[in-house]
Every structure is written in structure tokens, then in C-alpha cells.
Amino acid sequence: MNAGRCHFSHMNLILRLVREARHARIIIILSICFGWIGALFGIIQAREISTIINRVFIDGSSLPAVSIYVIAVLSIVLLRAGFVWAAEACAGNAACKIKQSMRQRLFTHLVDIGPAYLRTERRDVEPPTGELVNLATEGIDALEVYFSQYLPQIALAVLIPLTILLFVFHSDPLSGIILLFTAPLLPLFMYLIGSAAASLTRKQWQGLSRMSAYFLDVIQGLTTLKFLGRSRSQIDVIKKVSEQYRSSTMRVLRVTFLSSLALELIASLSTAVVAVEIGLRLLYGRMAFEQAFFILLLTPEFYLPLRLLGTRFHAAMAGGEAAQRIFEILDRPAPSKLVPALTHIELRSALISPPSIVLN
Predict the structure, then answer these.
(1) Are 320 and 17 in contact (CB under 8 A)?
(2) Does residue 127 have a cis peptide bond before it, meaning omega lies within 30 degrees of 0?
């Protein structure tokens, strides 16, 4: 039941983060479109390169005979680089816009809640001022990876492989079937390893929040500590807290590297399967060289968006943990909205029944 509840909470967090992207949805859509167009140019580039290699090494054409194809490849490379740059620029711009909106909302809501929040919220982090400072700075900045890389990559990890599959199925259905059945392995392993990394990332973020709160306490009380001669004794405590945070960070990195290794291994093995079946058919003359080389060039491009999704998933987990805490603060009702009504009631009561003054 706890696992189901955590999964439901995670889904709600994802849906809420997607709703936050509405502030820059047009820019994010442009980023996805530019990334997809860049992938299309990559497919055309693979087609032109396979044509050049086939004409030079198989047909024996001279370099001047294929010069127009070489110029086309160079132009495609420049266009592809331009669209990839435009996609990243749009995604970065969208992330900055969303971060600015969330930071402004967080500041406004903290002002509405008032100073009483600092005395009543999170008894395990007394006072939570350091945590709030960490959320307003590092927490909001951690969301940049989520909105600029991970969120657009979710769409590209679907669009680009499907587009490549259409071209592969048109050229060679057998290779398309192999790609179709091996592609789900990458998201599956990403989910399995990501589930283990989620709890570690949560502990890492909680450790960072507590460390920020403790550091702020030490800085605020530094004058008192120096007056009492206890300032240098805090050095060992700070070293201990920093070492705990370093250990939690290294555990997260170990899981992240394990995930990257698994994704790279699956993608390499799948590419090797495609290369072996294509090589066997080439050996027995059942497949044209240009067609085989074209599919071999497309196969790494097919798995690349899925591998990038796994990498950016781990990079975006810290932003997800920060967003969870930010949404908890934003969901807290602001008592300041009740103050005018209460003040009016108290004032009316005071006017009807004025207090008596007793002089002794």
C-alpha cells in the first residue's frame, strides 16, 4: 500500500510539474519541434552518407562525381546543428521563465504566510529558514534541468524513435522488428534503477536542507558562539555534516553510473544484434550495401534519445524532490487572508462592549 501511495504521489508531482510548464508551453513545444526536425536532418544525413560510401567504394565513382552529395551532407550537418542549438536555447529560455514564475510565487506565498510559519513548520529543522533559503535558491535552480532537458526529452524519446522506425521499416522490416522489440528494454531498466535511486535522492535532498538550516544557524549565532568561545568547536560538526552529505551524494552517483552503464550496455547489445543480422544477409547477398549501411547509421540514432532520457531522468530527480517540498509550502493556506475579517469582528466587539478600566 505504501508503494502504491508513493507511486500515486509521484504521478501527482509529475502532473503538477507539467501544469507548471504552461507558463512557457509555446517555447517548450518549439523546443520539441526543433529537436524533432534536427533528428529528421540526421536521418537525411545518414541517407546521403550511405549513398556516398556506396558510390565511391562499391560503384567506383570518383570524388567529383559525388561532390554534390558531399556538399549536401555538409549543409545538412550545419542545419542539424542549428536546429539542435535552437532546441536547447528554447528549452533553456522556457526553464528560466518557469523558474522565475515559481520563485515569485514562493516568495509571495511566504510573505502571505508570515513569520509564524518559521516557528511552526518542520519541527525537525528548527528553524526552517535555512531550508527555505535553500529551496528559493538551489531548489528552484534544480528545476532547470527538469524543464530544459528532461521534459522535452520525454517527447523526443517518443517522436524520434517512431520516426526512425518508419524509415527502417520502409527499408528493412526485419531490422525494424528488432528495433521495435529491443527499444522497451531501455525505459524498463531506467524505471527499475530509477526507483532505487529515488529514495537515495530524497535522502540527499533532505540532508542538503538540514545542512543549509544548520549552516544558517551557525552564521546567525556566530557572534554568540565567539563570545562564549565555542566558535571553533563547530568546525568538527560542520565537517561531520558535510561528510554525511558527501556520502549520500556518492551513493546517488553510484546508482546513476550503474543506470548509465545498463542503458549503454543494452543499446550496444541491441545495435550488435542488428549489425550481425545485417552482416549475415550481406554475406549471402540478400541485402544491398547502401541499404544495410543506412540502417547501421540509423540504429545508434534510434537508441540515443532513450539513453539521453535515462541520463536526464537522474539529473532531474533532485529537481523533483525540491518541487515536492515547494508544492507543500505553496499548498499551505495563508492565515493572513483571515486577518481582516477577524480584526473587523474583534473591533466590532470592542465597540459594543468596551473594556472596563479598574484603577487600584
Answers:
(1) yes
(2) yes
Q: Label residue 319 by pLDDT band (50, 70, 90).
A: confident
Assign 3-class secondary structure to the chain.
Answer: CHHHHHHHHHHHHHHHHHHHHHHHHHHHHHHHHHHHHHHHHHHHHHHHHHHHHHHHHHCCCCCHHHHHHHHHHHHHHHHHHHHHHHHHHHHHHHHHHHHHHHHHHHHHHHHHHCCHHHHHCCCCCCCCHHHHHHHHHHHHHHHHHHHHHHHHHHHHHHHHHHHHHHHHHHHCHHHHHHHHHHCCHHHHHHHHHHHHHHHHHHHHHHHHHHHHHHHHHHHHCHHHHHHHCCCCCHHHHHHHHHHHHHHHHHHHHHHHHHHHHHHHHHHHHHHHHHHHHHHHHHHCCCCCHHHHHHHHHHHHHHHHHHHHHHHHHHHHHHHHHHHHHHHHHHHCCCHHHHHHHHHHHHHHHHHHCCCCCCCC
Please state, in angstroms and rounded to a whole number, the distance separating the CA atoms of residues 320 and 177.
35
Average pLDDT, the chain: 77
Q: Enumerate residues 6+ apart whose C-beta is below 8 A from 208.
A: 134, 138, 245
Closest CA to 141 of 98, 79, 186, 197: 98
Q: What Cα–Cα distance (Å) separates residue 120 from each residue in 111, 114, 253, 354?
A: 15, 11, 35, 33
Q: How many C-beta neighbours within 10 Å does residue 8 have?
A: 10
CA separation, residue 332 to residues 41, 114, 209, 220 (Å):
48, 12, 19, 27
Indicate the pTM of the whole model. 0.76
Contact 194, 320 (CB under 8 A): no
Asked if residue 181 has pLDDT above 60, the reply is: yes
Q: What is the pLDDT of residue 9?
A: 60
